[in-house]
Every structure is written in C-alpha cells, then in structure tokens.
C-alpha cells in the first residue's frame, strides 16, 4: 500500500469517477484504475462497486475511506513540517481556545510556555461551545482549551482552571421587574435572554436557559456585554469580563427562580485520545498539566 494508491482511491471517491480523478491528479485513467485495483487485490475485497454509472463505496470501502483520509491528512502535515524544517521555519502550535477562556489564568499559562519556547509560532483560534472540540476533529487544531461541551470517549482532557459565571442585567432592566428575590421566571419571559451562538456544525441545546421566553443569539462576548449594558436583555457571563461594570454599577447580579444564577465552569485542556501529538504539542500538553 502506497501513498499514491491511497490518494488515487480517495480522489476517485471525492471526484465521483476514475476519469475525473485522473484529470484532478494529472494522471492517466488506467494508472488511477490500476492503483485502486492494487489496493483491492492486496486486501482481497472491493473498495468500489463499479456496477452503476459511477463507482460507489462498498461497506468495506466506506470504512477504508475514512482511515485513508486521516492518513493522507497526516502525511500532508508531515510533508509540510519537513519543508518548514528544511527552510529553517519555526515550529507551529495550533490551539483552539474557547472564547470563555480570556481570563488571566488561562492566558498566563500559555504565555509562560511561549516565553520558555521563544521559537514557537503560535496559532490561536477561538470558537464557542461545540465548535471548540470540532476543530480537533477537523484537524485544524493540535489541542483545545474549553468547557466540557461535546467531549466523549474520543477525547482525553485534564481540568486546568474554572471560570466564574454570573447572571446579570442592567439597572434599567432590573428596575422594570418586581422587587422580589428570586425573580420569578415568568417575569423575565418578555426580556431577551442573550446567548452565545454555537459555532459547531451539529445541533446543540443550550444549558442554563429558561424553558420559555425570548432568546437572542450573538457571536461574541463583546456584543453580549454591550447588549447587557444597554439594557436589552439579561444573561450569564464570565465574571472576569465584567469586573469593571459590576464595580461601577452598570451591571447588577440577578437571582432567578430555579435557575443556575452563579457557578464555576471547569475548563479543560483537550486532545483526541487516539491521535498522536507532534513533539511541540506533546511538550505543551505536559507543560500545562504540570503547571495546573
């Protein structure tokens, strides 16, 4: 089994035909056909059914295709690393950071690692909710840092810190509510609950929301904070993002009936369990676990 044979097979699947794959790879159609046939002969099963107008994956082919895609992606990464090392380019570490993790403890640990490894080129992307771990699945990040959303047996994770969440609203919004503690849920239904939109591709059910009432979705915490200060809704938000507003009275904590008004959200360092880390990512993982 060679890299060229895997590439020929994957390209046939993705381009839809042997002819299209040959054109895409700048090879002859017999060459592409022979590469796929060699794979099939090596394992003694059909990868592609050729009975229809276009080749289609067999049951075995579907399983083989998923693994072949991963191998080719890893090979491409290795080739890129080889070229970078040959050109003297500094190693790159890609981290997906949940937007909730802008507190000092999360960023200080990353800064400390970079100070100790000044040759590192750091790529940080930010996502929300399920979008964080999805970047690992898409191989767009080596590691991720965020809450527990979407984690399962595919992931290995270690708690690094916790983020303090608090429910707040502006004085103008609170003054329009009955002066009672806690505020009954039905008294908030007419006021939008401001939520951060999930950046993952799958469906997602938000936690800590009222069963009824208006819900507004925003793409970042800066907009969420601005809407809160403007008295346009109420929400849970990390305390570290609104310290000044809490101190000067622009935002006020609010207690809501049968609602998780304030709690600590664990933040994890996350990796794919069966995905080998590169030397730099492994070094970062060990460093963060040691410093926690």
Secondary structure layout:
Elements: H1 3-15, H2 18-25, H3 29-43, E1 48-49, E2 56-57, H4 59-86, E3 92-98, H5 104-116, E4 121-127, H6 131-137, E5 143-146, E6 155-169, H7 171-175, E7 193-196, E8 215-218, H8 221-229, E9 235-238, H9 243-248, E10 252-253, E11 262-272, H10 279-291
Parallel strand pairs: 3-4, 3-5, 7-8
Antiparallel strand pairs: 1-2, 5-11, 6-9, 6-10, 6-11
Helix pairs in contact: 1-2, 1-3, 1-4, 2-3
Write structural notes for this entry.
- This protein has 292 residues and is of the alpha/beta class.
- The protein folds into 2 domains: 84 residues, Arc Repressor Mutant, subunit A (Orthogonal Bundle); 200 residues, D-Maltodextrin-Binding Protein, domain 2 (3-Layer(aba) Sandwich).
- 40% of the residues lie in helices and 21% in strands.
- It has 10 helices and 11 strands.
- The strands form 3 sheets. Strands 3, 4, 5, 6, 9, 10 and 11 form a 7-stranded mixed β-sheet that branches. Strands 1-2 form a two-stranded antiparallel ribbon. It has a two-stranded parallel ribbon with strand order 7-8.
